[in-house]
Each structure stands twice: as C-alpha cells, then as structure tokens.
Amino acid sequence: MLEAHFKKKLPSFELEADVSISNGILALVGHSGAGKTTFLQCVAGLQTPSWGEINISNKTVFSSELGTNVPIRKRRIGYLFQDYALFPHMTVEKNVLYGKPKEESVSEKVLTAGDVLEMLKITHLRNRYPDQISGGEKQRVALARALMTEPELLLLDEPLSALDQNTRSILQQELLRLQAQWKIPFILVTHDRQEAEMLGDQIIKIDQGKQEIIKGRSKREIIGELNRA
Ligand SMILES: Nc1ncnc2c1ncn2[C@@H]1O[C@H](COP(=O)(O)OP(=O)(O)OP(=O)(O)O)[C@@H](O)[C@H]1O
Questions:
Q1: Which domain holds residue 28?
Q2: Is the same domain home to 141 and 186?
C-alpha cells in the first residue's frame, strides 16, 4: 500500500502529488521534465519533499509535520532504473543476490536467488556476466534483483523503453504476471500511453508538476462515495 500526499519545490515549478494505491499498477505518464522521476525519488527517499506525508504499508516513511524521514534502505522499496544498473564484474546470480537484505528476512516470503531466477525464467543465465546477455535479459536480472529485496512497493522508471517492441511486449506480460503473483503496488513511469493503458490499473498524468487522473479514482472521490453510502 502506498499513500503519498506531498509537495516538492523544483526550480521552475512545484510538484504536487496525491496518490493512493493498495495493489495493482499505477502508471505515471507525462512529458519530459514533468516531474515523474522526482515523484519516484521522493517516494524512495532519494529526494526530500518540501511538505507532506508518505505512508508505505501503513508505516509513515516521511512526514514534514512529525519530522519523519526514513532512509531509503529502510523503506522496503524495489527501484528499477531504465539503464538496469547491473554490476558488470558480477555474474547474473551475484547481481541478484546483491538485492538480498543484509538483516534477517522480515517478510513471510523468504526467497532464494534460485526462486527469483526461476520466477523470471533466467536460471540458465546464472553464471553469465551482464555483457554476455541481451537488453531484455538484463532487465529481467534487474527485476530479479529488485524482487530479491522483498519489497513492499516496486518503483519502475521507464524499465522497458530501451527494448525492442517484441521484448517489450513479453516483459509487459511478465510485469502483469509478477504483480498478480507478488500482490504489491507497482508504480510504472512510462512515456508510452499504450503501455500505460495496458498495464495501469490507475493512470496519472503529470504536467508541470500538477497531476491529472486519467484512469481510476482519487482517494477524495472514493471517500466521498463511502460517506454518501
Ligand atoms: N538535480 C536537479 N536539479 C535541479 N533541477 C532538477 C534536477 N532534477 C530534475 N530537475 C528539474 O525538475 C523537473 C522535473 O524533472 P524530472 O526528472 O522529475 O522529470 P521527468 O518527468 O522524470 O522527465 P523525463 O521523462 O525526461 O525523465 C525538471 O524541470 C527538471 O529540469
């Protein structure tokens, strides 16, 4: 579950975020420079909002009022970047194992690297290095490493944009399957409106920091409906 209600001052505008998602995929669309990456980074703890509150799985990770700002490594978030960010000197298996939490597992899903490699159908690549696998395979390894962290929320910053259409379609299906299996919210930044339509249970467009709901309903609308019932 993610509930984020915050503002972040940027040099040319202020980003205003107000989202709520308990399960499923929230797609974030918008022009270049609209504030999408800033949104993800505020949720992850890589940037600090100017004002507001962020809750993940009912835990407050940021609150300007309470002075709470939980560091990124304690937020239980998987973050997938466009450029995969794999370690070139480590094998696929070592890259995946790198995601394993250092402390004892805190979730009921105790995962081995073998489980995750199998889940993403890359067991046969375990001993290869990143320069010996394709772009689509690299993205699977990056996804495997993110899942290995046992996240409560997965942030995906244009994860498929560097891939060819065929690989992209396969991985889109894979994301849907993983989300259904994992049952945690995914936030997907994409430039591709069709991808947002296909994968997003909710779609939010950001323009100059202001959000517009394209698909799904705002928390305010849902609460209003409950109050009227
Ligand atoms: N480190 C920074 N310092 C100053 N301004 C920044 C910094 N990073 C981003 N910005 C500005 O903040 C605004 C939002 O940037 P952001 O990266 O969130 O946009 P985006 O929607 O993710 O864009 P893109 O689709 O091109 O990745 C932009 O106007 C950008 O110029």
A1: 2-76+152-227
A2: no
**Residue of 10, 31, 204 with the most ligand 1 atoms within 8 Å of its CB, for mutation:** 10
Task: Say if residue 57 is in the same domain as residue 145.
Answer: no
Residue of 8, 14, 37, 46 with the most ligand 1 atoms within 8 Å of its CB, for mutation: 37
Asked if residue 207 has its Cβ within 6 Å of ligand 1, the reply is no
Q: What one-character-per-residue DSSP string does 187-211 give?
A: EEE-S-HHHHHHH-SEEEEEETTEE
Cβ of residue 30 lying under 6 Å from some atom of ligand 1: yes
Which range, 9-13, 143-147, 218-222, is most confident? 9-13
83 lies in some domain: no
List the structure tokens of 72. 């990124």
The answer on 93 and 197 residing in a single domain is no
Tell me how far apart the alpha carbons of residues 82 and 158 are, in angstroms, rounded to a whole number: 5
- Please tell me the chain's helix, strand, coil percentages from 3-state DSSP, rounded to the nearest 5: 35, 25, 40
Task: Give the whole-angstrom CA distance, residue 67 versus residue 205.
Answer: 29
Question: Is pTM, for the whole model, over 0.95?
Answer: no
pLDDT, tens only, 5-59: 999 999 999 999 999 999 899 999 999 999 999 999 999 999 999 999 999 999 9
